[in-house]
């Protein structure tokens, strides 16, 4: 078992492991997270098969988009984090997709009304005016987003008690979409059980999902990590809860 190994060994291994892209295969057998009931990858694949031009914003390493069985004639993905760009290009090459490195702020480098469909899984920020601008009339934006207070239990295990979450509320997303001139046609929410079986899984997750503990480094939080390791060994896997919402908005 992983937990038969010592704290220092597990932490060192996780701290050295690569975190490029947006896949989580490194956690196989060490952490699990329930999947949202709507099946985002399946929904995206179905939509891509029906349109002529599509854009994936914040594609990460292109892992979700790469699952699409029938890509449209024009498929473009954007990514702002430089290490992810070559990963996404490699993953999306079989689909004939173009991957564009962009800044983490607007504008998007595309003409008005360029796409029938815009998708985004776990965007860092949704620039609703830009989404509306690049959508064709009748086009749709489909996105799975991080909800408020996601894996808050893990954040508090490292940082201590936190104030109520102020960001990523689904109703705020609805209001922002409408303010950009879009019509919200679907909104769904889910709370998902997330289980960490060893401290190495925690370290790797915190390095990759940077908003969980902003500014995380092993050295900065070694004492908190050691306490959490002792808790896992004494009580069993650490359980947190991820929050997600699906939003679909259309340009009239």
Automatic annotation (TrEMBL):
<dbReference type="GO" id="GO:0032259">
    <property type="term" value="P:methylation"/>
</dbReference>
<dbReference type="InterPro" id="IPR013216">
    <property type="entry name" value="Methyltransf_11"/>
</dbReference>
<dbReference type="GO" id="GO:0008168">
    <property type="term" value="F:methyltransferase activity"/>
</dbReference>
<dbReference type="Pfam" id="PF08241">
    <property type="entry name" value="Methyltransf_11"/>
</dbReference>
<keyword id="KW-0808">Transferase</keyword>
<dbReference type="InterPro" id="IPR052939">
    <property type="entry name" value="23S_rRNA_MeTrnsfrase_RlmA"/>
</dbReference>
<dbReference type="InterPro" id="IPR029063">
    <property type="entry name" value="SAM-dependent_MTases_sf"/>
</dbReference>
<protein>
    <submittedName>
        <fullName>Class I SAM-dependent methyltransferase</fullName>
    </submittedName>
</protein>
<feature type="domain" description="Methyltransferase type 11">
    <location>
        <begin position="55"/>
        <end position="141"/>
    </location>
</feature>
<keyword id="KW-0489">Methyltransferase</keyword>
